[in-house]
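We emphasize that the prediction below concerns an isolated chain of 242 residues; any contacts that depend on oligomerization or on bound cofactors are therefore not represented. The input was used exactly as deposited, without trimming of termini.
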Amino acid sequence: MEDYSKKIYPSFVAIFLAVLALAATLAVFLYSQSKGISEENDIIAPTELYDEPENIDDSDFDKNMTQYITQEIFFNYPAGWYIESEGDFTTFTSWDTDNTSERGLDGMRLVIGRVDTSMTLNQYVGEYLNENIISDPSYNLLGRKHTTLGGLPGVLIQATTSLEGGAAIQSVFTFFEGEIWSVDIVGTVLDDEMQDIFDHVAGSFTFLKFVPEEEKDEAATEELNLIIEEELNNNEEIIWLE
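Result of the prediction step, given as a token string:
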């Protein structure tokens, strides 16, 4: 009787090896395809999920800004705005307050100030919101978030009010040397123009103690030297932060 097992065994082995080779080839193909898709998605996904910021040429806007500098701080503000200081607060307005104290529909007011406090930044902002906005029905708090001011941690808030015929308010606070510093802007509507002005002011806000002399802006340094010379001529004492 013929032994068929000897004939079947080599055939089985050949079939098994052929199937194994096919599976390996398929695995390599699927892996290469999945890798190609993954690499393609790595390139495409960011442009699909996020809008790339446009290159905004704000050189014309910068020409409309001028510099404000003291012995402690420096920032840019809109050229031609009117300045009035009282205590530790300086107010910049887009209209002449000598003619009228009321802000018109197109009027904007910028206030830079500081307050001595033993509270932390979050404690101060929390108390400020509770006392001036949350507890006042004429105000509506739109939101708050963490940000920076002068290279230091800050808190940004946005609110609206029915006062002054209706207004939008945006403020940023930071803590420096035992004081809370703030930048506030008020306008009828928080439109692109108002936001641009706020961004330029807050973005350029600098505590001069943090800036080495050689890195100071030339124009700012020249203006500071003029201020010092004028104060020396008036026999006023110059106090520099160490």
